[in-house]
Design brief:
The protein has 291 residues and is of the alpha/beta class. It is built from 10 helices and 8 strands. The protein has helices at 25-38, 74-84, 96-102, 104-113, 158-165, 178-190, 212-218, 232-239, 259-262, 280-290; strands spanning 46-50, 65-68, 89-95, 118-123, 169-174, 195-200, 219-221, 246-253. An 8-stranded mixed β-sheet has the order 2-1-3-4-6-5-8-7, sandwiched between helices. The protein is globular. Bound molecules: iron/sulfur cluster (SF4). The site of iron/sulfur cluster has 12 residues, from loops.
Length: 291
Amino acid sequence: MATAELTLKSLESDVHPDWCPGCGDFGVLKSIKEAIVELHIASHDVLIVSGIGCSSNLPGFVRTYGVHSLHGRAVPVATGAALANHALHVIAVGGDGDGYGIGIGHFIHAMRRNLNLTYIVMDNEIYGLTTGQTSPTTTEGHKTKSTPRGNVEKPIQPLALALAAGATYVARGFSGDQKQLTRLVTGAIAHKGFSLVDVFSPCVTFNKINSYSFFKERVYRLEDERHDPSDLMAAMTKSLEFEPRIPIGLLYEQVRPTYEDTEPVLSKGPLVDQPLGLDRKTFDEILAETM
Ligand code: SF4
């Protein structure tokens, strides 16, 4: 598709979202589409990869390339694609259970490598697809199906983890602030290096605590308080703030070489442009064996 034809409408797929009415993930889907249009990226130059969960159905709802992978494995699949084809804008998406639970190891290592990809986490602080169990970001005391007497575990702080691990674009958005969310997602996709956008994306069906009104009463925009995104320690302080106010916006941005820039094997170009080192006969034999 030529970029001139790129519109929000042209990015709609034939599959309509199956999310509950009011789910925060609708806002994230809209912001991803708006960002692609804003950046004039042809849809065939975008790959969206997900894991498992309500939010991980997202790649099916956008007319780009997409992979609905395994639970917690969005980031490693996205990593492979980003290393193989540098022309692609690779966006991994998923929920807090997927990314900060089973996928936490991949999350940390992708950030310390500063791989050139974007990770958008639809953080609703609950497992939604499995009908409301405690997730890694569920707050203390929250009564869920798996913790009927209240959650006794401390929630993970994903933004602090991202800063400590070396992510070079760290932001938090809110589905109830569409304009800012689109700006953050646009900045994340445009950023060269690992970009994380953790999004408060309310689960209106199974999380009655962390609702739109909960966040509306607490969030404030970092850009309104002259936060300096080049200041790592200021970003770390903001990443741990939750009560009584919660910052949303760009916490931190840094320019430094990506993994793709520094890995010697990739100095000859992306893997898709490099010879396999096999003659045609051997290639055909391997292909036949694996198909
Ligand atoms: Fe969204 Fe929750 Fe419904 Fe899943 S269960 S689609 S997270 S509102």
